Amino acid sequence: MSQPLHRQLGLTDAENDRIPELIGRAPSDAELVMFSLMWSEHCSYKHSRPLLRRFPTEGPHVVQGPGENAGAIDVGDGLAIALKIESHNHPSAVEPFEGAATGVGGIVRDILALGARPIALLDSLRFGRLDSARSRHLFTRAVAGIGHYGNCIGVPTVGGEVSFDDRYEDSCLVNAMCIGVVPAGAMLKAQARTPGNHLVLIGNRTGRDGIGGASVLASAELSHDDEDKRPSVQVSDPFTERKLMDCCLELAAAGAFVALQDLGAAGLTSAASEMASKGGVGIDVDLDLVPLREQGMAPAEILVSESQERMLAEVAPERLDEVVERCRRWELDATAIGVITTTGNFTARHGGAIVVDIPAAALTDDAPTYAVPVDPAPTPAPTPLDRIPMPRDLSAAWMELLGRPNVASKRWIYERYDHLVGANTARRPGGDAAVIRIPGTGTGLAITTDCAERHCEADPLGGGAATVLEAARNLACVGARPAAATDCLNFPNPEKGATGWRLQQVIEGMSLALEALDVPIVSGNVSLYNESPERLIYPTPVVGMVGLMADASASVGEGFTGPGDLVVQIGSGPVRLDAGEWLGDATGAPPAPDIAAEVAVIDLVVRAATAGLLQSAHDVSGGGIAVTLAESALAHGIGCEVSLPTGRRPDEDMFGEGGGRIIVSCHPEHLDQLREMAGTVPIAQIGTTGGRTVTLRMGEAGAELHVEQIRDTFESALPKALT
Amino acid sequence: MSVAVVRFPGSLDHDSAVRAVHGLGGTAELAWHDDRALPAGTTAVVIPGGFSYGDHLRPGAIASRSPIMRAVVDHANAGGLVLGICNGFQVLCEAGLLPGALRPNATLSFVCRQVTLEVSDGGTPFTETASGPLSIPIKNHDGAWYGDPDRARVVLRYQGENPLGAVDRVAGVANEAGNVMGLMPHPEEAVDPLLGSVDGCVLFRPLVAA
Predict the structure, then answer these.
(1) CB proximity A330 to B under 8 Å
(2) Where are the beta strands (DSSP E) in A521-654?
(3) Average pLDDT, chain A
(4) Three-state secondary structure call for residue A34
(5) Domains in chain B: boundaries
(6) Do B51 and A416 touch (CB under 8 A)?
(7) In the predicted model, is pLDDT for residue A60 greater than 70?
(8) Distance between CA A283 and CA A593 in Å, rounded?
(9) Has A670 been annotated as catalytic?
(10) Residue B10: which of A239, A415, A416 has the nearest Cβ?
(11) Tens digits of residue pLDDT in A346-391
């Protein structure tokens, strides 16, 4: 016997009972479908919203916090920078090329909805290990999809990160981040304002693609016809997206839009109900006016179709002709499909009959929220060193680590992306953070995405903080002061096991570090249920962070720039192999970050870079200081000789992680100034640059690699792993 | 005296090309694909990079048949300078103004990388002042030039590598008269120390002086 419709749609019995209370009668099938989508975790954050309130979201420079399509900060020169990261995990696992491509398209439209011109993209990716044929397929096709879309729309993909682990074999992660720029006074909101104004649908026609979230739509129970189920994969059309961008930005600059909204998950339902409820007004849409790709679409299908490359605008009657005319010039459909009303209701007509008539706020504000169980998991103890085998040949171990796909060069990926278009890319992918010049200014904007997922598994509180601090360190290394962040919380099912607790702890750890840095979260996204019966992903709270520097051309690189400079370690917190790249697991606890100490290191490096004291700066992250130094040497083919007289076991010295450390190089005559600037922040000269080898001494032990050896291994590892 | 930068739906690098001209002290104006004539006072034309018409059919195929191209062909036939960059090079080949064609890269993937170019022909108006190797980025999916290098005026070649799999490492060609040139690398992305190179200026300077 088949399930009742509401259960097939994913609504609980209690949720189903709540709907008649809110609307005063039983919902129609179309209305029930709308509720099921708007009350889904994806649209309503019903399991995460109470926890997300913990994030610091305010700051004097915040001009748009969470709640709109993207957040934004004031960056001076009369400009605001918009930022947002979003997941497209599940579509990418089903069809990686289109899933990843439409993920890029969606995040670009989120930025566009603020009237902002998209100026940079980043992608944070997680896949299973590359010895799995399925993971190789998902990874290479997702990269192809990101490139296909990003390259064609002319937004440079300037950075991101990727790692490979068994935990992502069944649930890959594709998170896309976009940055945009908008005149501070001209920012748009997705908030309908004035009754009598038109709702104009711009862009692609509406089809049956992307009705995946509610595949039952095509079933006989609902549509009462015999049509076969249609493919539910969203289809990308980057050419139309580019035209949509160009056209909407022209109209936004002309002041033709009162409000602007993109159509993403749950399509027109979500876009229109959010516009109405945010504005405290109603909307009345005639579905017969929506341009369709195919005939015979049911009202519910039109209302929830996720056809891509569509925007919804509020336009005053006297500007309608101008909007339609401008769209025609760009060869885009623009159709007035409805009006703003005073009723507060979402009303939809089809074939002359009213098929939907419910309070818009019932779909959005009245969505249920649930407290997730927060049952702590025991925090593992640090692994005793005698249980970790000591490598017999440290140089060979070092080389092996540099050749692992998680550590090795990601050139294979970023050379497939146009990271230059727009002629503002001052620091290209491959370093700690990308730097772009904010168009029309000399200001530099540094951007990074990061996540310490193994740390989050072993110690979610410390891992949440470590994730934020890692992002801030990466910005500091190029000389930028962290300014704002966006987050994408990728987790397994929060209703089971310790996931809810980990989610809460990660958010707490992130918040503590964000507060210490004075960096607000201005936008974010949550992706839950990333698990299969066999595998749960690690808690993966990806943070996208932006930082500012006065002069985009004065950024600092990760590479040593010449011989005879001093190699200096800034920061000296505890270091351990646990949860690091060398061990590659999360069975032991890494050291919890000392937030205040790490923030002081970050602050010092920003000040030193701004004062022009640094020749290079590179943080110690995956694989420890041995990897940091190898990368600094590789960049310009300049080696170094470094001593690590710590008394630790040599492998822990080389590959241990944590401690919030940054390795800089400086001219000898600048060391005193650097020490003075440091105050109480620990800094130590550990070596000098020069030669063609990277030589490490750890007491009696030593390791040495030639720069060319490093290059061969580091550059060839990822391509080899893919063949 | 103005450089016309042609804009098709899907053009991406028109603004960067305009900025490159401005940076050299010239004036530039956008020309719309649907126009029948170039802006009054046009002395040189740039067909910029991008994905005109979404690369539908073949890169450059639809753009080469757009209304503005008749005016560009007239301008070229009258001896005016025309520079096609990346997608602009594809458009000029499709329009028959330049010899050869651009095939998908040997890697069958998009390639974005800084490359070094050698100037094979310093006799065109574009390369009269070019000396020594030029460091300019490539970024394309269909940039492998195919044609007979003995019957084409090869202006630029990749030095040391052949990143896209072009015949004879060809990166740029000109017509017989030398007033029409196309290249896959992006000189407008190499006009500012911030971008890592200013070598692209030598190719833009003749347009500004025209």
Answers:
(1) yes
(2) 521-527, 540-549, 566-570, 616-619, 640-643
(3) 94
(4) helix
(5) 2-209
(6) no
(7) yes
(8) 50
(9) no
(10) A239
(11) 999 999 999 999 999 999 999 999 999 999 999 899 999 999 999 9
Query: Which of A331, A422, A553 lies nearest to residue B194, judging by beta carbons?
Result: A553
Domain membership of residue A697 (yes or no) is yes
- Give the pLDDT confidence of A641-680 residue by residue, as tens digits: 999 977 899 999 999 999 999 999 999 999 999 999 999 9
CA gyration radius for chain A? 26
Count of positions (residues) in chain A: 723
Q: What is the mean pLDDT of chain B?
A: 97
Residue A279 domain flag: yes
Cα–Cα nearest to A46, from A89, A11, A93, A72:
A11
Strands of A110-237 (E only): list them. 117-127, 157-164, 173-183, 198-203
pLDDT score of A416: 98
Burial of A672 (0-12, 13-18, 19+ CB in 10 A): exposed
Domain C-terminal end among A350, A377, A392: A350
Q: How many domains does chain A have?
A: 3
Cβ of residue A425 closer than 8 Å to a chain B Cβ? yes
Most A CBs within 10 Å: which of B19, B66, B86, B110, as the mutation test of the A interface? Answer: B110
The domain containing residue A718 runs over which residues?
Answer: 557-723
pLDDT of residue A214: 40
Under an 8 A CB cutoff, do B12 and A421 touch?
Answer: yes
Strands A282-286 and A345-350 come out as: parallel
List, for residues B62-112, the tens digit of each pLDDT value. Answer: 999 999 999 999 999 999 999 999 999 999 999 999 999 999 999 999 999
Q: Which CATH fold would you assign to the domain B2-209?
A: Rossmann fold (3.40.50)
Q: Report the pLDDT averaged over residues A36-50.
A: 90
In a domain, A15, yes or no: yes
For residue B6, is pLDDT > 50? yes
Question: Which of B53, B56, B112 lies nearest to residue A419, judging by beta carbons?
Answer: B112
Is residue B86 flagged as an active site residue? yes
**Mind telling me how many Å the CA of B78 is from chain A's nearest CA?**
30
Q: Is A660 left (phi over 0), alpha (psi -120 to 50) or beta?
A: left
Does A427 contact chain B (CB < 8 Å)?
A: no
Chain A environment of B137 (Cβ under 8 Å)? 420
Question: CB–CB of B110 and A151 under 8 A?
Answer: yes
Would an 8 Å CB–CB cutoff place B142 in contact with chain A? no
Measured CA to CA, the distance from residue A245 to residue B150 in angstroms comes to 43
Residue A42 has pLDDT above 70, yes or no: yes
What DSSP string runs through A455-470? HHHH-HHHHHHHHHHH
Give the active site residue among A6, A47, A61, A88: A88
Judge: B53–A419 Cβ closer than 8 Å, yes or no: no
Query: What is the pLDDT at residue A229?
Result: 43
**Domain termination site, one of A286, A318, A350:** A350
User: Which residue is catalytic, options A6, A42, A47, A455?
Assistant: A42
pLDDT at A443: 98
A439-498: per-residue pLDDT in tens? 999 999 999 999 999 999 999 999 999 999 999 999 999 999 999 999 999 999 999 999
Task: Give me the helix-helix angle, A624-636 and A394-402, nearest 10°.
Answer: 70
The distance of B102 to chain A (nearest Cα, Å) reads: 17
Query: Which domain CATH number covers A595?
Result: 3.90.650.10
CA-CA distance, A672 to A691, in Å (whole number)?
A: 25
Sequence-distant (6+) residues with CB within 8 A of A278 are: A189, A190, A191, A192, A364
In angstroms, rounded to a whole number, what is the distance separating the alpha carbons of residues A698 and A647?
A: 8
pLDDT digits (tens, 9 = 90+) for A200-231: 999 999 998 877 444 333 333 333 343 444 45
